[in-house]
Amino acid sequence: MPGPQVTIDLERIERNARTVVSWCEKAGISTFGVTKGACGMPQVARAMLRGGVSGLAESRFENIKRLREAGIDAPIMLLRSPPLSLIDEVIRSVDISLNSELAVIRELSRVAERMGRLHDIILMVDLGDLREGIWPDDLVPTVEQILELPGIRIAGLGTNLTCFGAIIPTEVNLGQLTELADKVRETFTLDLKYISGGNSSSLPLLLAGGMPKGINNLRIGEAILQGGRDTFLDTPRAELDRDVFLLSGELLEVKMKPSMPIGISGVDAFGGRPVFQDIGERLRGIVNIGREDANIEGLLPLAPGITVLGASSDHLILDVTEAATPPVVGDRVNFRMSYGALLAAMTSEYVEKIPMYDRHAATPASRVSIFADEAVAPVLRKQTLDGRLANIGYDVDFTTATSADDIAAALERRATPLVFGADHRASFTAMKALTRTFDAFGLIWLDAVAGMLPEQPDRPATSESALYRALGLGAGDEPIVPRLSPENVVLIGLRETAPEEVEILRAARLKIFTIADIDALGMREVIRQAVQIAAAGMQGFHVSYNPAVTDIPAYLPGSGGITVRETHQAMEAIHQSKAMRGMDITGLEGEAEPRLASLVVHFALSAFGKRIL
């Protein structure tokens, strides 16, 4: 039974970001997109960047690492005050940090100088919200001490409002920030790049025309991620979409029950004393969402006529009496979430996160372009691959020109490239071509080996390091990241790893199904998960297949691999997903044994939709 799920509409995030950025740009304000509400999900970060934000802002090092490993190289601002215990990590991983403590800034200076770096800081000023910040009277003497420190550059001033004391941004308090900035500039002849006037709660002031001149940066999360559900609580902005994140759960029970509990009332499982009103018998539903999954008080049912009554750790109790369509067991119920509920749901390991991107464009191409080098082209022509593809409805062209430029040109013609090469260098070339057409794509890699061997410095690219290079771990050719994120890469059928690969694979965020996993789960479940992971938040995925993954009779490299039928099953599921944007097949040589060539061609045909009937 599926558990709670959060669907994330990345197109809506992009539109919201573009709207907020346009508001801010008119006032000369740069925007950093805050990703902490989405736990640093790379797909969300990319959507914000497509929407025009100048950089990203995060509070958790785990999330910053996640963004960097996804190949996102945009400026990242650390929102949370840096802890002394993690100063090395601050200097290594972020471009700007928000600071208020001299002891921390001194340590940042020491580490930055040791690493040979110049670290930018924004000094936070407390304007009355009573969270972090230097008291205004102490600002000038603090700046004076910081200017003596090497390795540190004061990039600006900032403040935080509404988060703790619920103090609303006004012309008065943000005007005080600009006055302090002017004082610092005049006293020390400093060039302050950022005067950061807070978060989403500053947008109403901006739109009302009250933002003081001199505020030139905002750190925006909630308004982009939730369309200002909390920011514009009383006066929603039609330009912003509020349904980016939707939480859903499955109805486990639907029954008529009294509205008043029966028996002696005490405290509930969380120490509270619930209050009930007797309104007679009501139709109640129980959903598989609990306090371990979300902040229940921040859930609003999407369908009219449904009311949240309360929750235990695992069950959400609803009154569904007035629902327009009477719900039944097994139905899914959708909820909008407050920012607090969103944070809880996104950080809960029990809630599945499903990013969605460009759903309407997920239609298969009607043209296939076959690319094969001179050695393997005769084998494919003998197997009449182009004619067989034509027989199942494709317009087909065949060429022996196999450069990334040639493949990219086929993609521009809205064809699906089918690339044949001797080894995984062809895979790298095929994926490189995809980066010219798609902003984000996943990868399903079917091979007995991972292609994650570290590259040797100053050596030509090798097949054994193709995926290592694609993920930006090596040198040389430009990597495929950030368009290809490790979180959307799935390896299927892994049987062999070199000692040098083991730790790399363990540390990577790849999803790996070894041959033992396939034995345990079955190919149907493995490929279901693989398609879901590779397509999550992407514009589709690329497929890389090598026959060494398949146990083909008389073909020694495939010994002990997945079966021929399991290979077909995987390819059929890939076609059914309608999300394959390109495919490469490696390991087929010019002298290939006819049975091997025939099977490989049939696998390719299955991936493109060939059926028995």
Total helices: the number is: 20
End-to-end Cα distance, whole Å, is: 32 Å
**Overall SS class:** alpha/beta
Helix content: 25-40%
Oligomerization status of the protein chains? single chain
Question: How many individual β-strands?
Answer: 24
Low-pLDDT stretches: none
Computed over alpha carbons, the radius of gyration is: 28 Å
Largest sheet descriptor: 8 strands, mixed
3D shape:
globular
Strand content: 15-25%
Return the average pLDDT rounded to an integer: 94
Give the helix/strand layout:
Layout: E1 5-9, H1 10-26, E2 30-34, H2 42-50, E3 55-58, H3 61-69, E4 76-78, H4 87-93, E5 96-99, H5 102-115, E6 119-124, H6 139-146, E7 152-158, H7 171-188, E8 194-196, H8 203-207, E9 217-220, H9 222-225, E10 245-258, E11 281-287, E12 299-301, E13 307-311, E14 316-319, E15 332-337, H10 339-347, E16 352-356, E17 367-372, H11 377-382, H12 385-391, E18 395-399, H13 404-412, E19 415-421, H14 425-434, E20 442-446, H15 466-470, E21 489-494, H16 499-507, E22 511-514, H17 515-521, H18 523-535, E23 541-545, H19 564-577, E24 580-586, H20 594-607
Parallel strand pairs: 1-16, 2-3, 2-9, 3-4, 4-5, 5-6, 6-7, 7-8, 17-18, 17-19, 19-24, 20-21, 20-23, 21-22, 23-24
Antiparallel strand pairs: 1-10, 10-11, 10-15, 11-14, 12-15, 13-14
